[in-house]
């Protein structure tokens, strides 16, 4: 009996050791570094955390992450859900969905490079190499500094994220939408409900669990956003975000402040993970 009780742990041991070495230990070490100075020599207490929430550049990074979280999540979910519902009635549904999903095949770095060239700006009177400004120049309009005009440059970078992740949201929502019994929707229409009422009163409530999961997934992605900002502006022109700031701190180097930002990001992500875990457990009990 004693052996049987410990047998599962023998199978789990290799995975637990790997997770402990690559996840738990680095997290503890990073937490320790966050209380040290830039050279990891002297203990400074919560000085790094005070800096993180009071320094002007850090406040801007937190603000931009909040803008990303609101705009990116709302646009990705709303556009993805709208496409999932509308394309369900399109004759060439699979072809259209494939085209919309294609950006997901592009890496974040590749997308950043592509859109950096699309947004590329040169002073008026010179040849424009950016697609958007080349079109404006050909039309006789003044070129626009898409990535240098604050605060709109944040929205233009956010659009790149929406361009990639809308296809993912659409596919997930489409699968959930198709699982809704068609008889339920037809009954609502026969009872006189409009398409808008059917969507708000039946479709949306039934899809709420999926919406919540996808929303938390998008928020976690936004909290770690780095690639687009680093490649397109490197945080200049008021586009700094937490992850890019952390990367710069490692470059300076200032390991204390970099570790502090890593801990803050971890603390922001953990509640979202716990929410998802609780939801999965609750749904599992309901299904049983």
Quick one: overall form? Answer: flat
CATH superfamily of the domain at 69-240: MetI-like
Helices and strands: which structural class?
A: mainly alpha
CATH topology descriptor of the domain at 69-240: MetI-like fold
What share of residues are in beta strands? under 5%
Rounded mean pLDDT score: 86
Instruction: State the major sheet.
Output: none
Low-confidence regions = none
Q: What is the share of helical residues?
A: over 70%
The Cα radius of gyration reads: 24 Å
Q: How far is it from the N-terminal to the C-terminal residue, by CA?
A: 29 Å
Which quaternary structure do these chains form? single chain
* Alpha plus pi helix count: 12
The CATH architecture designation of the domain at 69-240 is Orthogonal Bundle
Count of β-strands: 0
Describe the model.
- The protein is an all-alpha fold and 288 residues long.
- The chain has a domain at 69-240: MetI-like fold (Orthogonal Bundle).
- The chain is built from 12 helices and no strands.
- It has helices spanning 2-33, 47-54, 56-86, 93-101, 108-118, 131-138, 152-178, 182-190, 195-223, 227-232, 242-251, 255-287.
- Helix 4 (93-101) packs antiparallel against helix 7.
Write the layout of secondary structure elements.
Layout: H1 2-33, H2 47-54, H3 56-86, H4 93-101, H5 108-118, H6 131-138, H7 152-178, H8 182-190, H9 195-223, H10 227-232, H11 242-251, H12 255-287
Helix pairs in contact: 1-12, 2-12, 3-7, 3-9, 4-7, 7-9, 8-9, 9-12, 11-12
